[in-house]
Amino acid sequence: MEIKKFQGVIPAFYACYDEKGEVSPERVRALTRYLIDKGVTGVYVGGSSGECIYQSVDERKVTLENVMAEARGKITVIAHVACNNTKDSCDLASHAEILGVDAIAAIPPIYFHLPEHAIAKYWNDISHAAPNTDFIIYNIPQLACVSLTLPLLREMMKNPRVIGVKNSSMPVQDIQMFHDEGVIVFNGPDEQFVSGLAAGAVGGIGGTYAGMPELFIRAREHFYAGELEAARQVQNDICRIIYKMCSTHGNMYATIKAIIKKQGGPDCGSVRAPLIGLIPADEAIVDECVAMIAAAKEKYCR
Description:
Helix content is about 45%, strand content about 10%. The chain has 12 helices and 8 strands. The protein has helices at about 25-35, 55-70, 85-100, 115-130, 140-145, 150-155, 170-180, 195-200, 215-225, 230-245, 250-260, 285-300, and strands spanning about 10, 40-45, 75-80, 105, 135-140, 160-165, 185, 205. Strands 1-8-7-6-5-4-3-2 form an 8-stranded parallel β-sheet. It is globular and about 50 Å long.
């Protein structure tokens, strides 16, 4: 396992739609180029930020194909391949391996409450569909309603392709516990990026990173330079920006896509129903977020 390719800031990739709400290959490629130019370590494609549960298997394939067309050999690509059934998940896993991604990832099955041995079989079946590709467990109990336990992690570690955990549970303690089991861990909650690094995360995968990648990169630089107070200050400003992002009527991803566009980045469209798009009253908040990000970049990234 090449840990270096997973160390750093890995934005969760946003769903990119055209004006009709269909996945836009051109906009997918534009967002990929935009993030590469920002100096991120990689991208995490097809997860929560990618609105995966609202997209078809074919749409998710199209998105990953166009990300890989731009990103191959330039940045790390992790493909989230979980669907709410094993067959489609294995299809996406096999497709991702053919494209040459660096790793695949999967949440546990949602809706039905399955025993841990069934969850392990689901994950292992997905991994076996991409036998030459590293596998990352995605722990997000607040949405999946399933928490990764140490016994389940240890069972999964019998699979040599299982290398790590994308941990989006809120307790930083979870990162420390998973790290101590010998797997690599990615910090999930953006509001605790620096705390996650301190607990042993190799880096982060986050849904707000693409709106302000420079700030997360700078926070990480301060942390590894031993400048902990400086890292804390950047993190505090990041948190204030996130709180503001979450204050719109529309979904947070719709807000961040609008922020990227106003920053001169690509137009990624809106979000897919039942997620809620922005309303006119949200525009002032988007402008405020853009100003807050610009001020923080001026303060920390010169």
